[in-house]
Prior knowledge:
This protein is mostly helical. It has helices at residues 15-23, 29-37, 42-51, 59-67, 96-105, 155-159, 186-190, 212-216, 222-226, 239-247, 292-318, 324-344, 366-388, 397-420, 429-455, 460-479, 491-500, 505-527, 532-556; strands at residues 80-87, 115-125, 136-146, 165-167, 174-176, 197-199, 204-206, 232-238, 266-268, 278-279. The protein has three domains: 15-65, no CATH class; 68-279, Alpha-Beta Plaits (2-Layer Sandwich), CATH 3.30.70.20; 292-556, Formate dehydrogenase/DMSO reductase fold (Up-down Bundle). The strands form four sheets. It has a three-stranded mixed β-sheet with strand order 8-1-9. Helix 11 (292-318) packs across helix 15 (429-455), helix 11 (292-318) packs across helix 19 (532-556) and helix 12 (324-344) packs across helix 15 (429-455). It is elongated, with a radius of gyration of 32 Å.
Amino acid sequence: MLLTADNPTPLALDAPSMSSAVRSDGPSLIAALLDEQRDLSAVERFARLHTAGELAHDLRHAQARHYEDLIPLSQPGPGEQFAFRVDLDACSGCKACVAACHQLNGLADDETWRSVGLLVGEKRIPPVSPFAKVHTEVPVLKHVTTACHHCVEPGCLSGCPTQAYEKDPTTGIVRHLDDQCMGCQYCVMMCPYEVPQYNAALGIVRKCDMCRQRLAAHEAPACVQSCPNRAISIQIVRREDAEAAALCGVFLPDSPDPRQTIPTTTFVSRDAALGALRAADSFCDRPQHVPMSLVTMLCLTQAAVGLLVVDEALARLAGSAWSAEARTFAGLAAAFVGIVGVHCAMLHLGRPTLAVKAWLGWRTSWLSREVIVFGAWMGVAATYAAALLGFIPVGLAAPARYASIAVGFAGIYCSLMLYAATGRKWWSPARGVVRFFGTMLVLGLFGAAFLAAHVGFEFALRLIVAAALATIIKTAWELAALNHYFAAEPQALRRTARLLTGELRLVIDLRSAAACIAVAFAYLVVALPAQAPLWASLALGAAVVGEVIERTLFFAAVVPARMPGGIRA
């Protein structure tokens, strides 16, 4: 086929006559190529659709008929929204959509808003011959192109503390507001599909917005326009239908539970074996990034609250034996450690100057609630410290102490729910209670034992023994997670156990060693009371190291839900 300048209508060469001449001597490669050349190319089909017999009609109407299957030319109605439609049978994995998205949106080298993964498996083919009785197992591979699903109930939107996301009421497109983002990356945790991408150079998170400006001009998004097989298109869906499909679990094999955010993307395939496929990277888990600023923040804030709790318990149980000097040291140490811990969290932000906006999402975001509660805790803890130092009336010390304990408990609970809300099994509420409040108790007891040993408190031996027992119980509970390696369900915990016994084996061994060393030093406090201050100091140091390692595993060993990925090289 050829296109000429004078006549854009495709002109066909006399391929039949040429191929017939060639076939006179029998089939050949040239004959096959000439026959193949008779088929219309994509450019030829485009030209024919726009010229052959359509000039007499409204051109815009003709284009609408041919391209309305790629993008809708009308706005969604009430209860409707735009959504991606992916034909898994048509996707070849060429990644033209990835390249087009990257180029059009000017993304960084390590930033991708659209990715291509794989579903792999096998299907049984019935015997071809009636005499054969054995079914044949044939490997199946499906490429999956994915981007933001523009969910009905977006996790990124509900989790954002600065309200940096909005869902367009007309189109349903979930848009990120760059100017409002402080770079906390909590939306990355809240999205079960790992859609938002953090840009370290800009200090903010960004994501796919379905090329909304192109859609507004009736132009296809970059990924839709670039796909050579028309595997991606935009359609209008009813939100009620998306909710019903999510409740029935209709989405994509080996992918996150759609009930969590109700995604609107539709994946279609005519392959009956699709439901039996699994993600190609389902056994390629890697340790996750560990934000040391958050590790430090969690450990220090929980240690501060624990020290206040143990201090109050000792004052009630021991009475005047727990001296005013010890109480002053405990209160000042707790306030200092806690305030330093809260400020450490600022180091995690890409744009810390916007942290003042973190309270805006308090209605839906646990991160906003944590910021508000720990902000209030710093106020009451500073008030308590000021009363102990005599800067304000001493009568305010007791109310401030009680408020510090109550608000501190609320802050730890907000920290717990902040991670539990992501839906990750390793961060479940039950596990969070043991981890976070266990750290509070262990470090609080070791800290009080340290102070008691230095001021000569007679209960120091009992405190160090209680701290050692708490450490043993908490460490044994943590190691019990390895039992999930042999369990069939849930898969996420089994994969976590596989990480702990594989790439993170050295880290978990260090955690166990630190706990054993802390317990050993605690024993020396009891065995050598004359040197109790030294051994209590070393025990506290080992306990702190152990809890920091445990909190490192908290982040590193989690297996987040994600869309199917590719096979790692």
